[in-house]
Amino acid sequence: MAFETIELSSERAKTGRAWGEFQLSILDDLSKSVPPEQISSRVRKEIKEFYNDKDTRDRQIAISVNDSCNLKCGHCYYASTHIDVPQNTANDLTLEEWKSVLDRGIDAGFTYYSLLGKEPLLTPDITLGIIKHLEEQKKQVPEIKWEMVTNGTLIPPNERKIREIKNSVGFSPELISISFDGYREDHDAVRGKGTYEQAKKGLRILKDLDAVRRTVTHTVMEDNVELSDLMVRDLAENGAQYFSMGFYFPTSFNKKLLNSDKKIGAFERLIAKLENAPRDLEGTISVNIVADEQPNLIAELYRQGYFNGTVYVGEELGPALVIPVRNNPKTMIQVNVLPMMLYQGFRIDHTGNVMDYCADLRSPERTGGFGNIKRQSVPELVNISREKIWPAYTEQFFKRLSDGFKGVNVPAVEGWYPQNGSNK
């Protein structure tokens, strides 16, 4: 194994090397059947030392501005996409309440905000009002960053409003991500007829707006791999700079679109197809594998020796290992093996409930989360998240990863922390 860091000063390279070697050592321990509770205890200690309380780089609040979407994707992890859940917006936060939440978050040291929905542009006055407020706050706190994740189809009807924000206070996202689930017919089969071209139109508008880090988020499934290189080429020609590819994961409600035993095959086919991606791609292609959801896949990659070659961490010294695949186009496998969720931040939903990033939305019984921003201060919620919930999350995180290394077929997680006496 050759460990490297990219574009770092000598001192940061030294730190990065130690941080990367620590992450690799976790995989080695798992391969040796070191008890997961022993690993989780060690990892918590290291994370606390590396990301100290004075370091706010990685503090993030995800904002679910609504529980609505104009599409109904079969693989969506929101339970409310697949079952009838009464839509009651009476308790939704108003724009003024969201502004107050942002100000409180900024005062508490949170500088990164991820705007989600379901579909954030289905409530454009709220979402664009939040963006405008963050742009205004950036003038006093330059460290503030924001991103938006969207299906892209509602960018065209909201173009005028977005341009008004750009002309008044600026429009400078850290990134905007549009979801594409395959090339043309493959995408439309998942998201609906005509949605590929409509989302692509949204991508072109972002390019015209000079939005930076225009990113395509792609979910790998059984039937959308074969034309993935054509998707990359087509979307790059229409303004995409970066491609972030992750793997489908099942829930109790969504459609089963990629069985666990077929993921390694889909992964290998995808890597081969990306050989045909355009050589002049402006950004990078990243195939992302997260231990939260893909413990078996990580274990299989370890067994096949993917971590035995060159491995590095990037310039931000983030909680991930990066395995280079090829330089042109720059393609990499990014493997997240550290349980940072609930330590670095949490999600606030449209009613103010505070929860983890994803799992709590997969079951209607868990959407109450572990607190509410209307009733509790941000420091109080941070304390609950870090001191009471994060340890339970890390224990289950490494128990699942350990099972994956033992060859157990690890099921989808139902909950990361006890809620009403149960993880169910």
SSE layout and pairings?
Elements: E1 2-5, H1 10-31, H2 36-50, E2 60-64, H3 95-107, E3 112-116, H4 124-138, E4 145-150, H5 159-168, E5 175-179, H6 185-191, H7 195-208, E6 214-220, H8 228-237, E7 242-247, H9 263-273, E8 285-290, H10 295-303, E9 310-313, E10 321-327, E11 330-336, E12 345-348, E13 353-355, E14 371-372, H11 378-405
Helix pairs in contact: 1-2, 2-11, 3-4, 10-11
Question: Could you give the order of the helices and strands?
Answer: EHHEHEHEHEHHEHEHEHEEEEEEH
Largest sheet: 12 strands, mixed
Overall 3D shape: globular
Taken as a percent bin, the fraction of beta residues is: 15-25%
Distance between the first and last residues' Cα: 40 Å
Strand order of the largest sheet: 10-11-8-7-6-5-4-3-2-12-13-14
Share of helical residues: 25-40%
Radius of gyration in whole Å, from Cα?
Answer: 21 Å
Mean pLDDT: 91
* Class computed from helices, strands and strand pairing: alpha/beta
Number of helices: 11
The low-pLDDT segments are 1-8
Number of strands: 14
